[in-house]
User: Fold this.
Amino acid sequence: AQKVTQAQTEISVVEKEDVTLDCVYETRDTTYYLFWYKQPPSGELVFLIRRNSFDEQNEISGRYSWNFQKSTSSFNFTITASQVVDSAVYFCALSEGAAGNKLTFGGGTRVLVKP
Amino acid sequence: KAGVTQTPRYLIKTRGQQVTLSCSPISGHRSVSWYQQTPGQGLQFLFEYFSETQRNKGNFPGRFSGRQFSNSRSEMNVSTLELGDSALYLCASSLGITGREQYFGPGTRLTVT
Assistant:
């Protein structure tokens, strides 16, 4: 069965520091998709990034970057030069190819960015 | 485009009652999924609908049900409410049928007393 683990429950940083969020996943499918979502205090989940299992190329999008490594089943996410508005709970999620759009979420990591 | 909308935003019910929550997806999105979020269990998948058909169901009792209409709007129903059903219920819509990013609504906060 699929599983997503976010070992860090809470991270506190000072503004402009970089923040890296860890995510480890388990799946038996060879086709799967990985996501990061952000949940600010308002409660609405905001889509950040998506990666499929066939594309391990790591990219940078603005202040966000991610490191996808199939060998270690990890999909880590970095916020560069953090800002107070980045304070939120961040969720890593997995969708298996055979399971439609069903998302399995990790427990979330609360990020607190202090001014 | 308007985002995913959910009504009502807040709801207070008594044990034993039933409740119906509504979700309108982003225009053009035919896949709608529902999730329950609680402090103890986190985010858990309830079910997914595509073109009025349930494609997937999570590990929830039969008291939880849903449906999707021809205009892709979806409703979920919880019968015989229990205290443990108190949660944030999130609806998400997606353009595709697998592996696509999902866009979430603001959620319905259900409190069962």
User: Anything to note?
Assistant: The interface with chain B takes residues 31-33, 35, 37, 42-47, 50, 52, 91, 95, 97, 99-108 of chain A (CB under 8 Å). The CA atoms of residues 20 and 78 of chain A lie 4 Å apart.
